[in-house]
């Protein structure tokens, strides 16, 4: 059974070739299965496309640029996150500025959080980060 719409699949294919700079920088760190953690980029799920997806743990990693703070985007993101949670997907939101500031630290935190099982320090990093879940922005 297909877990995504054909529209989402088409959008994912297009987004894979037009990723933002923060997405490209982070993908370059995540693409080689660091610590044995496999990520998919621009993964379709339902009617949505997830920036990075850890399928075996059902964790979505979203990179949020400033557009996510404007207009109806916060409400759309909230609805999207709620739908993903109902599908059993945890959502990590990371501000694009954090990726640009220190991509290595962000990649390390994401990989540790998504590892099997996550190291104890990963949970602490998420709980103590400044953006209601730290730069990992856990919403799931």
TrEMBL record:
Residues 7-113 form the DUF559 domain. The keyword Glycoprotein does not apply. GO terms for molecular function: endonuclease activity. It comes from the Bacteria. Coiled coil: none annotated. Keywords: Endonuclease, Hydrolase, Nuclease. This is Endonuclease domain-containing protein. It comes from Qipengyuania benthica. The lineage of its organism: Bacteria, Pseudomonadati, Pseudomonadota, Alphaproteobacteria, Sphingomonadales.
